[in-house]
User: Fold these one by one.
Assistant:
Number 1:
Amino acid sequence: MDELVERLSRGTHPVEVSLRPERTPQALQQQLGYGYVHIKFTGTKGGTELGVTLDRQASDLAAADFAQGTGRATIVGSLVLNYVKVRCVAEIDLATLAGTGHLDVLTDAAPQETAAAHA
């Protein structure tokens, strides 16, 4: 498995929401409305910014007050990182637009690894 994917799928990591041109809770709400948001894992060399396609059913925005910039939003979505299909799960504090996150690997082991495991 890819080293970056493996590292980000173990434990939780610091993340922040990447928003342009404004970094506000209202801009995050707008991006979520489009169904696509950028999550940056800040603990990697130079940071790793991922474009996440929102899974509206798995995400939880009930505790988020975007107008006041308070509460927390759980953002869940899928993407392909270094040829590995993953689900990104990020817990974001609206006051700071930062929080913690991790990746869940959605694919089985590569065919070579599976064959080697059974040999």
Note: The longest helix spans residues 25-34.
Number 2:
Amino acid sequence: MNRVAIVTESSSNLPPEVVEEYGIHVLPLKVIWEEKVFRDGVDLTPQEFYSRLRMDHYMPTTAAFSPSEFLETFRSLAQEHEAIVAILLSQDLTGSVEAAQIASQMAPTLPVHIVDSRTAAMAQGFIVLEAARAAAAGATAEQVVARAQEMIPRVQFLATLETLEYLRRGGRIGTAAAFLGSMLQMKPIVGIPPAHGTVVGVARPRTWKRAVEQMLDLMGEAVGERPVHVAVSHGDQEEEAHALAEKLRRRFDVRELYITYFTAVMGAHAGPALCVAFYADEEKP
């Protein structure tokens, strides 16, 4: 068992096999649908969520963890680990970071380190994964935190959406709000730049095909010819996700690639989507 426990939320979109391999503790965020509370990925699978989303006129909302819920988790993990590193969804998007900080202050003897990922989805997931790999290699809590901090300015996230309506209703649209004008018959691309913390508008292609091509071009501009680690996440777009993965393999020097479902809590804010999260290996001196 690792000396350092790695904690994150379901928003990180990590594949189940990765979670199991590295013993990552994933806390399920909450989806509230017609006053019923579902635990993301536990009571409500992504497949169930998107099937219902397309048929239900009721708009689901989400809820972060309370300080008491974080405290319960921290106390449980402290019984088997020397330290805890929690890598959480950007504080500009939810209240997890603040709640976790309050929880750590409620039990000051617990060695808890809180890291604001400044991003979301598998961009957050890659930060968590690299921290977990460091912990598995025997790193100290301080070294694990340092590894996470090194990753924050490197990871990027892009998504093409069927509509911006879900982001608008959920209040997570950030500077992408300017995209709301003249969005009819467009497939907007939004993103979270490295360490930016919130969603920005990127492009307004008119077709889904063009949106995918433009995401690949944007990724190419960012990584150049460097080896790349990438995850394709989708909300009810499985066929398109696998097609995009093949295009990525053909176009880039892909060292690591995952295909994941956009979890329910992310889908509640983004709706049906096709996303890429990625980072490039650092250039050799």
Note: The radius of gyration is 18 Å.
Number 3:
Amino acid sequence: MQYRGSCHCGKVAYEVEGEFGQAVSCNCSLCARRGSLLAFAPRNNFKLLRGEEDLTTYTFNKHVIQHRFCKHCGVQSFAFGKDRQGNQIAAINLRCLENFEFDKLPVTHFDGRSL
């Protein structure tokens, strides 16, 4: 399925294609504070529609995930990284997708705090 997502102010918008049958809740220091629910798609299934100049990047810990934030409203609607096999992925904040019923998905808890 193809979905559209954005930050709160709408300056950053994107499309992503994927089958999101579950959400991931991570307890690392950033995700626990942010409260996002994540799903993952191959990086080439992600297309930024607008707002590259409105994004800033934050990395921490091992600096392997590029957390992308809107400079204006502060919302992180996606991040880029690699999966365990080394494939480029997009981590999508399901709460930022338009008309997506994330509350009906099972939630898997990931212990990012221990990494």
Note: The chain has a mean pLDDT of 93.
